Amino acid sequence: MTEIRTERLHMRLFRAEDFEAHARINADPEVMRFLPPGPMTRVESWRQMAQYVGHWQLRGYGMWAVIERSTGELVGRIGLLNPEGGLGFEVGWALARSAWGKGLALEGAQAAVRHAFTAVGRDHVIAVIHPENERSIRVAERLGGAFEREAHASGAPVSIYRIARNPEVSPPSHEYSSGPTPGGSMATGIADRLKELGIELPQPSSPGANYVPFVRTGNLIFLTGQLSQWNGERRFVGKLGREFGIEEGIQAARLCALNLLAHVRSALDGDLDRVVRCVRVAGFVNSTPDFLSHSQVVNGASDLFVDVLGDAGRHTRMAVGVAALPYDVAVEVEAVFEIR
């Protein structure tokens, strides 16, 4: 199923572990004030969550669980609905009160609308809003929606806002989506993206001294620096500016990045789709004093992360030259990833 990452949100399919947070949001009278049937019981919340998952299976699109990336917490749902007997192809949103006033509803709804236009092929969507829900009306208007008509839904009056496609609008550079589109063949996750790129990961190496390969704290995972080696066989042994040039250095840095991804996969029990983004990369280049292209060399790692993760692979970075590295390998790279 398609996932979307915006600057502050991760929009993905609902999972069983989302239920408690989902039920709390649905039980809040303020959140549900303008949403039928009003505050929900736990049973009703479970059925709704199951309906969202089923909608994805039947339609190929649906409501996403919305995760605030800075906290890793589920803060609501945003997405696309077109149930039988409904009022049309709809974009909808509902967020916990803790997420109000931050512009998150607009950020997520913009991504959902773009997905409807570019991936699902719609020329317009509608927003179905209670006439007194001023907050949601403002979001619809900022999406480019114009009032179309009055109607009734679930026995309550609603206003229909029509949002037409604007072909000149493209996604912001920080937005990244992965997964299939209806009838398409795009990779369904990071593992499939690796296959699509023809990339194989090595076996994660064992620590060679008194340290661990990674440490997880909160939603961050800090990875020990990885050398330019493949399944324990050291490659590119020597210095940049003496034994190797820039192109060999780039290949060495890419090899380090492959080892980092192998360790991430191991740390996440094989599920690379738990990666939210690459946060930071530090590259160390074993080089002669007159070699000054350290940044170009470390691009070998940076480019790999972007190739695999899209814009979620973009990161802050340090690239420095050093007099020596363990076993005299050419490059060592360490990284920090945000995970869920």
Protein model, in words:
A hairpin with a 2-residue loop joins β7 and β8 (156-164). By secondary structure, the protein is an alpha+beta fold. It has 7 helices and 16 strands. The strands form 4 sheets. It has a 6-stranded antiparallel beta sheet, sandwiched between helices.
Set down the secondary structure blueprint:
Elements lengths: L2 E3 L3 E4 L6 H9 L14 H18 L3 E6 L4 E9 L8 E6 L8 H15 L5 E6 L4 H9 L3 E8 L2 E9 L11 E3 L11 H8 L16 E4 L2 E8 L1 E2 L2 E2 L11 H22 L7 E12 L7 H16 L6 E7 L8 E9 L1
Parallel strand pairs: 14-15
Antiparallel strand pairs: 1-2, 1-9, 2-3, 3-4, 4-5, 6-8, 7-8, 10-11, 11-16, 12-13, 14-16
